[in-house]
Design goal:
The protein has 15 helices and no strands. It is mainly alpha-helical. The chain has 2 domains: about 280 residues, no CATH class; about 30 residues, no CATH class. α4 runs antiparallel to α7, α4 crosses α9 and α9 runs antiparallel to α10. The C terminus is likely disordered. It is a multi-pass membrane protein.
Amino acid sequence: MPMPVPKAVSADMSQSQFERILGNAARLALIGIGFVVLLVSLQAGQVFLAPVMLAVVVGLMFGPVADRLEGWGVPPALSAGVVVLLLLSVIAGFAVIFAVPLSDWIARAPVIWEKLQQQIANLKEPLESLSSFQEQFSSVLGSDSAVSVTVEDGSAMTGMAMLAPAILAQVAIFLASLYFFVATRDHIRVSILSMCVTRRMRWRTAHIFREVEHKVSRFLLSVTMINLCVGTAVTLAMWAIGMPSPLLWGAMAAVLNYIPYVGQAVMITVLLMVGLGTETELFRILLPVICYASINFVEGQIFTPQFIGKTLTLNPFVIFLSITFWIWAWGPVGGLVAVPMLLIAQSVIAHVLPGKPVKPKRPVYRTRQMSDRDELLANAAQAVREQRLEEEAEPDKGQKRKEERLSPPAGTAPDGVDPAG
């Protein structure tokens, strides 16, 4: 005959359960406070952290170049200098490509603005109807004053003069960080590995370093080649349709393509504004946007999955959240480092918290029409189905598993003694 559970023991178990809830709530509160502090620190340290992180990402991209130079006997300090000079030459080349066409468009800006004003004048009637609706709405609310917007005219040169020192400081921090990171990346790796106290920790840390370098360098080099192809295709398309300065639009498409979603939206907006300012027919206005959107669609659906591969494919929603967060924290630089930071986080989490794959006892037979995602989902559903059948066949086993999940662990009573004892 089972002995009844004393009320004191039941009260102890309830108190123990309440203490565990309070402990979990305290841990969650600490995590939340730490996350808020991290957000504030990232935004407050933008001037220093953004160029340093960009230098690390670019250094990982040019790591294979430095490794090849060091393999030929070049000292690390000299190979890092070559990498910095190579990057500066690439930036200077793009600046030359942008300079001449951009100066032409700046000279044509008054004419384009006049045409844009003509296009906006066509919207006069809808705006007047909106103004009348505003007056009626104000009269209903009992206010005779209309909503007014005052734009304070400021000097653009004054703003640029105020921003110039900060921009120059960030550029200097970026170049110095890139040089020292490339020159001392092996020492950084050895120093971090020496702080690992166990052999397993050193093994995992070494694998994290290797996978991060491989993923980031492969991703950035592949994206660079794809973006150069996109820029070439956009240049040829703009030249074919008679768009002025096709080289400028091709270079802009190649640069903005480093920022997924946001870069494409900016490029479409720019082409649409240029079409509105230079053309009068609707088809001619939308033709540059249609050409660019078609090229971008082919690139995103065919070439990027083919060259980057399925191993570097990330969830689009996670990519969008990462881009949004880093742009909010660090501005345009955050948009450049968003996807590489996501790859770094993915590699670290995969090795620190390795997941156990879901494998059923009887795997699903893969057909020709099934993709890797379909096979993974089918096997996961099969594993859940097998577990449910096992619990239905052995109800005692399922009940025992549920009791193990709900029962308090040993030694969690208020007096430190296991309640079952």
